[in-house]
Amino acid sequence: MNLLSAELGMAIAGLASLIALGYGLARMGWVGAEARPSVMRLILWVFFPAMIFNRVIGNPLIASGGQAVLYLGAGFLLIVTGYAVAAGVGAAAGVPPGSARRTFAFAAGVNNFGYLGIPVTAALFDRDVVGVLLVHNVGVEAAVWTVGVAMLSGDSLRRGLRNLLQPMTVALFVALAFNFTGLGFTAPVVFVSKVLQPVGDCAIPVGTILSGMYLHELLGRFSLFRDPRVSIGVVVVRWVLMPPIVLGVVACCVSDLPLRQVMLVQAAMPCGIFTFLIVELFKGDALLSLRCSAVTMLLCLLVTPLWIKVGRVVLGL
């Protein structure tokens, strides 16, 4: 427990430092608003695909199509369940219907599956489990960019399905195809994977710095305590309802050990950091989304270790 608290504290401190760096760069004018879309494209089209390819290639825990489908499906269902729970809580808490309620369901429904989930998983388990997490996270991304974006924008799910064809998804399926055919262990593919490793290592830090740059534009209008309905509602979603739901389903339905380890961490995560960028992109309430992230991040240093400790008992880990 003490080790977990120390590792979690270091992960949060590192995250906060990179966000502060991005904020400072924007405040000093070193990176202008016109550069931020280009940086985001670099993250989504280069860094994250490279990280996924490197972590999936040759991973012995992803040795069959059935395992990959299991991990992808778990990530997809986690987020869809989060949306459903958050939509119900938003309505019960009196979050105004329309854009505000859709934004609340989107922001509160997405946990911090990457920026905090990856370092915490790496601290608790080995590198191969992190590879399983990355496959799981592509399922999360699929849910975010289809069901989530359709809900956030008010579009149909059919139009949201177009977002599935993106570099991270392609990188995953190429890497899985190499693994399943045995090519993932050949010298040329291993060489490419090693070349991509330092590229993929840029995904988390650069993405976090970018979040800080965007925060510079938002924080002037932000008040943490302005809307208690949102603050209380997101606490109920992320810290009261979702952990027991996820742990209960995993305990009853999942026997795969690496997935149980991944879901232990996922159940205890706060809201995602990157969600307010998507909310802003699709004309939602970015300040409301930012409030969801801020409230749960402030509490996670205490609550996340507690849920991980409870989850280890429930899942027998």
Summarize, please.
The protein has helices spanning 2-27, 36-56, 65-93, 99-109, 117-124, 127-153, 157-160, 167-181, 187-200, 203-218, 228-253, 257-267, 275-281, 286-315. It is mainly α. It is globular.
What does this protein look like?
The chain has 317 residues and is an all-alpha fold. It has a single domain (2-315), classed as Na+/H+ antiporter like fold (Up-down Bundle), CATH 1.20.1530. The protein has 14 helices and no strands. The protein has helices at 2-27, 36-56, 65-93, 99-109, 117-124, 127-153, 157-160, 167-181, 187-200, 203-218, 228-253, 257-267, 275-281, 286-315. α1 (2-27) packs antiparallel against α14. The longest helix is centred in the C-terminal third of the chain and has 30 residues, at 286-315. It is globular, with a radius of gyration of 19 Å. The model has no long low-confidence stretch (mean pLDDT 84).
Q: Which structural traits does this protein have?
A:
single chain, 317 residues, mainly alpha, Na+/H+ antiporter like fold, globular
* Share of residues in helices: over 70%
- Domain tally: 1
The quaternary organization reads as single chain
**Strand proportion:** under 5%
The name of the CATH architecture is Up-down Bundle
Shape, per Cα inertia axes: globular
Element string (H = helix, E = strand): HHHHHHHHHHHHHH
Q: Please, what is the average pLDDT?
A: 84
The biggest beta sheet, please?
A: none
How large is the count of helical segments? 14
CATH class: Mainly Alpha
Task: Give the distance, in angstroms, between the N- and C-terminal Cα atoms.
Answer: 13 Å
Query: What would you report as the Rg, rounded to the nearest angstrom?
Result: 19 Å
User: Remind me, CATH topology?
Assistant: Na+/H+ antiporter like fold
- Note poorly predicted spans: none
Number of distinct beta strands: 0
Instruction: Provide the structure class.
Output: mainly alpha
